[in-house]
Design goal:
single chain, about 140 residues, Non-ribosomal Peptide Synthetase Peptidyl Carrier Protein, Chain A, two-stranded antiparallel ribbon, 5 helices, about 75% helix, elongated
């Protein structure tokens, strides 16, 4: 069982997955910054300068008027943080779109590579068949 586990870990797919997870974590930080630092201010501009990430509704508890989402949460009040949820949706859509574009590009590269391999295989001269080789060997042995 230990040898099977070593074989599993040694496979390229596991290493590719590990690299993908690390790159994905770094990419998530970039997208979070993109949404928080670039997209949200633009959305806030259209919404009258309101900070999009701090939009919430108090469900129960006392929260000071105009308090940030973090302050509302720290006060122990139950808040419905719909602004943070919308930001998470925007993050997801951006990440999903970029992943789609990457997969699309990789598939195009694979298709182009497969076409080249097919062309090379078609251009390569066909070698002798197994029967022809056996006949040549038999003729050589009979001499």
């Amino acid at each position: 069982m230990l040898n099977e586990f070593k074989d599993f870990i040694a496979k390229g797919n596991v290493m590719d997955m590990a690299v993908g997870i690390i790159i994905g974590a770094a990419f998530t930080a970039i997208v979070t910054s993109l949404v928080g630092d670039l997209i949200n201010p633009i959305i806030g501009l259209f919404m009258g300068g309101v900070d999009f990430t701090n939009m919430y509704t108090v469900l129960s508890g006392d929260v000071a008027e105009g308090a940030s989402l973090e302050a509302a949460r720290e006060s122990g009040a139950a808040v419905f943080a719909w602004g943070a949820f919308i930001m998470a949706i925007i993050n997801f859509l951006i990440i999903a779109f970029v992943v789609f574009m990457l997969v699309r590009y990789v598939n195009k590269v694979k298709e182009a590579s497969a076409k080249k391999e097919e062309e090379v295989a078609e251009e390569a001269p066909a070698g002798p068949t197994q029967e022809e080789l056996l006949a040549d060997i038999l003729a050589a042995l009979q001499k």
